[in-house]
Design brief:
CATH class of one domain: Mainly Alpha
CATH architecture of one domain: Up-down Bundle
Number of helices: 7
Shape: elongated
Structural class: mainly alpha
Helix content: over 70%
CATH topology of one domain: Four Helix Bundle (Hemerythrin (Met), subunit A)
Order of helices and strands: HHHHHHH
């Protein structure tokens, strides 16, 4: 049995240990960024206030809530060039709220792209509720 010191094996051991630490740090930061508590309470209160300003306010509130959800998706690291792509990327995280988020987003798209579309107060209210539940499902504080 040879008891001589082999510096190569020591260097390899230290490098392996350092790589494992770096990998763990990256994973920890990625998980932390995905679950960090985004706080949009002030923005959500402003959206609710806008909603109470009549028909035009209701439409604007839906649009603003859509923007807020998109902002959260971006900050949480969901990939995609459009909100639709980010919603697809967030499907598993949205869980049971996935369809509701899509429904609310589609209502917003109709508001923006169809000049003669005039949703009811109930439709706008339902969309706001869907946006709120989706944001909460993603861990956003409202």
């Amino acid at each position: 049995m040879d008891n001589t010191f082999d510096p190569t094996s020591s260097v390899l051991a230290y490098l392996s240990f350092a790589l494992i630490l770096i990998a763990l740090l990256i994973i920890y930061r990625w998980i932390g960024n995905r679950s960090k508590g985004l706080d949009y309470a002030n923005q959500w209160r402003a959206i609710q206030s806008t909603f109470r300003e009549g028909s035009a306010g209701q439409k604007l509130a839906v649009s603003d809530a859509d923007k807020l959800l998109d902002q959260a998706l971006k900050q949480l690291g969901f990939r995609g060039d459009t909100m639709g792509e980010r919603l697809k990327s967030a499907r598993k995280s949205l869980g049971t709220q996935n369809n509701a988020a899509w429904s609310a987003h589609k209502l917003r798209n109709k508001l923006v792209h169809e000049a003669d579309f005039s949703p009811s107060k109930n439709q706008c209210s339902r969309a706001l509720g869907d946006f709120k539940k989706s944001l909460k499902q993603l861990g956003v504080n409202l």
